[in-house]
Amino acid sequence: MNPHSSDTTILSRIGNTPLIELAGLVPDGCARILLKLEAQNPTGSMKDRSALAMIEAAERDGRLAPGGRVVEYTGGSQGVSLAMVCAAKGYPLSIVTSDAFSLEKRAHMQALGAELSLVPSAGGGMDASLTRRMMELAAEIAQSTGAFATRQLENADQLAAYHAMADEIWDESAGRVDAFVQSVGTSASVRGVSEGLKRRNSKIHCVAVEPSESAVLSGGASGVHRIEGVGAGFVVPLWKADAVDEIATVSTEKAMATARALSRSDALFAGTSTGANLTAALRLGLRLGPEATIVSVMCDSGMKYLSTPLYAPADPN
Q1: Strands, E, within 99-183: which ranges?
Q2: What percent of the chain has pLDDT over 90?
């Protein structure tokens, strides 16, 4: 075990994020919507949970020795979270990412000491080809350096972190949860939280959200989208269809519009995947009606997207 204990560092601040009720964004006749503020984690992302879980599991079973190198492919938030965990624990980190993901995320990873390798995208979009090329380069780096590869798309160690998040949601809502809505990246969060909530109450309706431009879980074709951190373009290894009751699709355009609206209506500054979550949650809320309670997730902070089409300032000319 690495001597840098998470009990005495910034890592102790991961988790136990607040659950708040939305007001301005929710229309008449809609269910009550509670949002788990994962932007309150140290790097501004829920991925802090999974990063810590993957690293500490590898420490416990000896896959990661003190001072050993770590490598991961990432759309950014997982890389930022791993960079923080590795900096706190003293591990060098190699990250494979792409120009498809925000400049802020890449700069944040580098600021925390990560060494970046960039894989070019097709016009700034995310698709299956980009995901697979990033995975291949990360595997090459692991092979050549002897690094421990966290391999987020297939690493089940992170599920425990999201089972714990489900416990937080249950406690904070006093068990008043009728539905849970979350987007699918690695699928660890939607699967882990859904499993955790259903252990408490099997009737909780759990919804997975994916980009409509690449709705592979719904049986559609793989395509290009710009909802960062979700929609790998293929069915990811951790996906477990029976962990959820429904799959919803949301377009990049609609996800961005909802994220922008959230900033103005409820003063919550979030990323595109949060916009996708809330688009799906609002649709479900109108189906379930005002007596129901839906929980969804503010996956990360809008500060990570200031240079992207989500929040880039309009040209004054």
Answers
A1: 115-119, 148-149, 179-183
A2: 91
Can you give the pLDDT at residue 9? Answer: 87
Q: Which of 165, 174, 228 is nearest to 194 (CA)?
A: 165
DSSP 301: B
- Compute the half-sphere exposure of residue 317: CA atoms within 13 Å on the CB side of its CA: 0
- Kindly give the pairing relationship between strand 32-37 and strand 70-73: unpaired
DSSP string, 271-291: -HHHHHHHHHHHHHHHHH-TT
Q: Over the stretch 62-115, which tens digit does the pLDDT of each residue have?
A: 999 999 999 999 988 999 999 999 999 999 999 999 998 889 999 999 999 999
CA distance 139 to 73: 9
CB of 222 closer than 8 Å to CB of 231: no
Distance from C-alpha of 281 to C-alpha of 223, rounded to nearest angstrom: 23
Which residue from 295, 292, 299, 298 is spatially nearest to 34, judged by alpha carbons? Answer: 295
Residue 42's nearest CA partner among 76, 80, 73, 4 is 80
* pLDDT > 60? residue 3: no
**Which domains can be identified in the chain, with CATH numbers?**
9-40+158-305 (3.40.50.1100), 47-149 (3.40.50.1100)
pLDDT at residue 8 above 90? no
Catalytic site positions = 47, 273
Residues 6 or more apart whose CB falls under 8 angstroms from that of 285 comprise: 26, 30, 31, 32, 33, 292, 294
Position with higher pLDDT, 145 vs 6: 145
Name the one residue in this structure whose structure tokens are 């006749």. 29
Note if the pTM is more than 0.85. Answer: yes
